[in-house]
Structure formats: structure tokens, C-alpha cells
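Morning F.,

Quick status update on the modeling queue. The single chain you submitted on Monday has been processed. Sequence for confirmation:
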Amino acid sequence: MASAAEQLAANINFAAFAKATELKKRIWFTLGILIVYRLGTYIPLPGIDPQILADIFRQQSSGILGMFNMFAGGALERMTIFALSIMPYISAAIIMQLMTSVSPRLEALKKEGEQGQKKINQYTRYGTVILAALQAWGIAVGMEGMTSSTGAAVPNPGMFFRATTVITLVGGTMFLMWLGEQITARGVGNGISLIIFAGIIAELPGALAATLELGRTGALSSIMIVLVLVMAVAVITFIVFIERAQRRIVVQYPKRQVGNRMYGGESSHLPLKINTPGVIPPIFASSLLLMPATMAGFSTGQGPEWLTFITTMLGRGQPLHMLLYGGMIVFFAFFYTAVVFNPVDTADNLKKYGGFVPGIRPGKNTADYLDYVLTRLTVVGSAYLTAISLLPEFLISRLAVPFYFGGTSLLIVVTVTMDTVAQIQSHLLAHQYEGLIKKSRLKGRRG
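C-alpha cells below.
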């Protein structure tokens, strides 16, 4: 049965949106920040030849550079001030999340509440600067060695070029991190996620145009294009269904008497998502698998034979690549789920507040039961992630379809859209409740 909040959300209409002035301001603010981000993806780094760099990048687009360029909205291909995008911040945040489960000091900070979270966020920012600086230095050194038939990508290499590149790229990443925090605080949705979302969506029109051009020239049949579009709609529907699916564990609270009144006795539920780790497993697996291909591409034929052999075996569409890709997604799904959800802590918290799962003894038995349920859910979730991630690989390698918009990018777009819509609905609900409260106060004064 739908809750009262869900029924009210279903009745939200455009009239309610028109009256929500605060929500409209937040939406316009968010759009303005995203426009600033997109403008920055066209400002090139100083000291490079963009044309030569674009020609070289096309040869490396199948490696890890292509994946990062997708998240950066084309900024890496154009080598702009936002070439690193927000990825160093995401990497630092993931590392800090992993460290909280290993370091007792960080775990204690996490349990301190808001103050501890502020310190962890500060450490994440420091880590972002370090990772961005290392990646920017690697990009600067790598660009100095890039050459094509028309010349070098960096006309005047040297320490000055490396220093300016590092400062510019680190500054661009920190500025994007600040923009994301502003969206989260004063806009709608999660700012970091929306920046990645905007980058992926910005590349979609070009991918669709390229697909239609292949259909016009006869490289792709019209039936194949229609099948791809129908499949995309079906996959999006499937992702929405799985991402909204939950396993709700009933939690009962005992009755207690205080004076002459009886409190408690109500039941609640503990929601467990099927896809607890989100898009982290495919990102980790893609990064590790595409690293050899990228290294071999940079070596320009000068690398060792074993690297060339590994690159060939791990090429996109190869059986070994798909097997390892699927296996690593499953591994990271279980690993990251174990990091973000601790059954023992959850069971202890339930016991602390008097809650219990009907038919299960509090404490260790509850923790074992939660771990059992979560393991079964993760099996389904990891299979779902593997299927969604391998689908575009199969289409590209076997059917020669330029299915750019798939896998990890599709997961990010759908989940971010769902989260943003949910936040908009919550703002509309809050606005309606405020209107009801004001009306009741006016009636009370008149009475």
C-alpha cells in the first residue's frame, strides 16, 4: 500500500511547481552552474596545439582516456582546464571511505557525527589536491612526448609548461569541486553527480548524430538503428526497476509503559537495495582493465612484447576482456558492499534502540541474518551490473554498433536523474506542507 507521502507526491502538478518560487530559484541556480562548467570544457590549456592533440587522442580513445573523456564531457579530448573533471575528488572520496573501515582513527571520526564528517571532508579535499597534482604532472609529461605526422602536441616543452599545466588542471578540479558543493547546498540534487551527468549528456547528441550518419551512408541498416533505440529504452526501464527495488526487512519495536501511557509497539522496516555499491564496481573494473591498453598506446610501439601481448588479449570485445571485466565487477560489488554496509553495526544499533527482526534473536543472530540477506542481494546486484556493463561491449565488438551511451554512463545518467527528480518532489512536498500550515494559522487567527 502506498504511503501518504507517495500519494501526495503522485498528486503534484504543474500548478504546485509554478507556486514553488524557492524551488525555481534552485533549479535556475543549478542550470547556471552547469552552464559555467560546460563553458570551461572549451577553454584549452596554455602551451598546447589542440589540433595535433585531437588527432593523437582519436588513436587512444579506446583506452582509459576514452572512459575519462566520457566523464569529463569531452574536456580531456580538447585538453581544457577541466580535463581532469571531478574524477580526482571521486577517487579521493572512495579512498577515504575505504580507509574509514581500516583506520580506527578515521572510524572514530566517522562516528562523531557532523564534526567528524567535516574533518573527513577536509581530508578528502587534501587527497583531491594530491591526486589531481599527480595526474596533472603525468598528463603534462605524457603530452610532451606526443607527436603526430604534423608535429608535436607541445611546441615548447619544459619545466615551465609542466608547472603551468599542473597549476591549471589542479585549479580546474578544485573549482569544479567547489561548483559541485554549491549545487548541493543552494541548488537541486547532488552537485558532483550532476557535473558528471552533464558531461555525459553533452556527448550524447554527437554520438546519436554519428549513428544516424552511419545509417545514412549504409554502414548500419535502419533496422539495426531501430533495434538499438528500442534496446536502449528497454535497458533504461530495467535499470530504473532494479535501482528502485528494495528488500524491506521488518523491524519491530517493543511496547513500554511510561506512567499511565503506553509508548512504542510500532513496526518499521530496514530497506536494503539490490544494487548497494552503485556504479563503483564498473568504474574500478574499467580503470584496471583499460590501463594496459593506454600504456601501450603511449609507448608508440616502443613497449615490451609482453605489454603488447597483454594489450591484444585484453582488447575491447575479446573473450578474455569480457571474462575479466565481468569477474572484476562481481568482486568489487561484494568488496564495496562490505565496506559501505556493516551488518554488525546495524544489528548493534537496532539492539541499542530496542528494535528486533521478528523471529531473529537480537545481536549476533541479527547480524548473521542481515549478512545472509545482503549476500543474496549482492549476487543479484552484481549479475545486474555485469549484464548492463557487458551489453555495450557485445554490441560494439560483435554487431559493430557505435553504442556509446551504455554501461557505466547509462547507469550514472539514470541514477542521477532518479535522485534529482526525488529531490524536486521533496521540495514540492515541503512547499505544499508550508502552504497548508500557513492556511491553518490564518484560520486559527480568524477563529
